[in-house]
Amino acid sequence: MEVFKDYYRNTVKFVKNEMYFSNQPKHVWVITKHKGQWLLTKHKNRGIEFPGGKVEQGESADQAARREVYEETGGIVKELHFVGQYYVDGKGGDIVKNVYFAQVDELEERPHYYETEGPMLLDDIPKNVKKDNRFSFMMKDEVLQIAIKEVKRL
Ligand code: GTP
């Protein structure tokens, strides 16, 4: 288990390859690639981040991961790999989130992208992402670094 503080100084615990904190996590986050580039989305309030969100009633976490990628980027997930799970001891309550890696072949143009402005393709995630205010807080803790390391191993 890896333990660290996030951007808001909340404690985060991350466990690889295992649904360690909950069998029914309520949140998902998907590190996504499309034709060799990183596929992110621009959230209207939080800024640039990988797609993700809440698991809906009657849906599995894997289904939520595919749906969120589609809603926020138009990307149709071909392969979905589970990477790990993290727990955030947040001020407004605890959350448990599954992290995935998804390979997207097809990017469909959509009339709207929910809370986001749609897809954003990047060759690289900037080294100074922590200090770059275009990026969401979700991109600013060790979860991103751990997940990207895992994705490179896959
Ligand atoms: P909505 O209900 O979706 O409008 O947003 P919310 O921010 O109120 O709810 P959510 O349950 O998504 O998140 C609650 C809090 O948990 C956030 O304000 C963050 O502090 C924290 N949180 C959520 N997702 C993450 C994440 O991926 N990483 C980290 N470090 N904290 C997160």
TrEMBL record:
One GO cellular component term noted in the UniProt record for this chain: cytoplasm
Superkingdom field: Bacteria
A Pfam family assignment: NUDIX
Signal peptide (residue range): none
Domain Nudix hydrolase: 21-154
Cofactor(s) needed for function: Mg(2+)
Family: Belongs to the Nudix hydrolase family.
The name this protein goes by in its record: Nucleoside triphosphatase YtkD
